[in-house]
Amino acid sequence: MTDKLFITNHTDKPMQAVITDNYTGNNVLKYELQPGWNEVHVKDLHEGVYMIHLEDANHEVFYEQRLVKD
Fold it and tell me: How much is the pTM?
């Protein structure tokens, strides 16, 4: 994984990207994603396994993916 993630919000409303530590389950980063193209900086994450969750305004998760930081 690089130091940046590029996420496109295809809706016309803001949503959240939440990155959690896969080992502890703690949220380590949270970004508000505006409609359109968004750049998420993950440079400060330590090496390890994380999960990214994309949530709508009601905090309902509609996408998850595992991230591995080398």
Answer: 0.86
Structural domain of residue 44, as residue ranges? Answer: 4-69
Q: What is the DSSP string of 11-58?
A: SSS-EEEEEEETTT--EEEEEEEPSEEEEEE-TTPPSEEEEEEEE-TT
Residues forming a β-bridge with 27: 20
Q: How many domains does the chain have?
A: 1
Residue 28, domain CATH: 2.60.40.3110
Each residue's pLDDT, cut to its tens digit, for the chain (70 residues) gives 679 999 999 999 999 999 999 999 999 999 999 999 999 999 999 999 999 999 998 889 989 999 999 8
CB 23 within 8 Å of CB 35: no
